[in-house]
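Figure S7 source data.
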Amino acid sequence: ILALSNDPEIVMEYFVSYPEVAEVLAKGTTKSSVILNDHLQVDLRVVEEKSYGAALQYFTGSKDHNVTLRSLAIKKGFKLNEYGLFDKETEKYISGKTEEDIYKRIGLTYIEPELRENRGEFDAAKNNTLPLLIIQDQIKGDFHVHSEWSDGSDSIETIAEAATKQGYEFIGITDHSQSLKIANGLSEERVKKKILEIEKARKKFPELRIFCGTECDIKTDGSLDYNNKTLESFDFVYIGIHTAFKMDKDTMTKRIINGMSNDNVNFLAHPTGRLIGKRDPYEVDIEQIIDAAKQTNTRLEINSFPDRLDLDDMHIKQAKDHDVKFVLGTDSHTINHLGFLRFGVATARRGWLEKKDILNTFSVRDIEKMIGT
Ligand SMILES: [Zn+2]
Ligand SMILES: [Zn+2]
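Tokens for the predicted zinc ion complex:
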């Protein structure tokens, strides 16, 4: 935590006497560190106003970014540290109040914190080609929500109501497909019934566009879990891997690309299948998937469920560099998950994405055209 104060001693006293503090590791007038009851270490730095931007820049990193930034500063005749930007010769203070001003003095446009990884942001800042990163307010809806028709816990009407409350213009209901029995996947008969149910909900929520989608399984041979006639009856089709994760790389890659080659497919769900801390990604050649996404005009999902965040930022950037487009979905199984979309936005930002890269930012009419419904 970084704070500004003219009276740091009072701030530090308050900080170390916080009721959740289990242990005080250090207490000074500019820096204190504590361990909380839940074992989290928290450091507090109190700085002067003229150093605030410099300190923020210094402590947020990344290290790779900061090393490069400091060397660029030296080339310009400056010295950059956590207290500010100084003249290299005279040590005279030049800047430090805001991050924006520090970057400007070094001859760069402002680099957003999410981009500070030394992955090309310096060249982009010099050439004025940094992305205008997506923001949460640009999101008009969520494409990946499970209802009680498969393994979700809420009715379509409850989801529509929650989406309306969220201020959304559309919502995509995506239940599992028939062979995924464990998740109560929908038979082709039940798909027809669900479509009727969605039509009823549309009458009740005329302001909200309720898309009837599906999250259709890619079977082990790469064929899809519904026939084309059924796939055509959805407004959009997500495909995903939910079984037989342990395949060799080549077979898995071919399996997914085979699925993406079906003309009814719009989106590839959670492209690597990782569950953070629980399950590694399956073996897959992501470069081939990215090429296939481009060729088949399939959008890659940034699954926003906190356990997934799949694709991750590196792969997003890689796909964006190949002109691939994206879709955000929460993979909600209850309406309490709808708020997870912000994690997808955060991941997208780390992957350099802009409004135009993400389908969720378009108007309902444009989306309808793009998904062909
Ligand atoms: Zn899934
Ligand atoms: Zn799902």
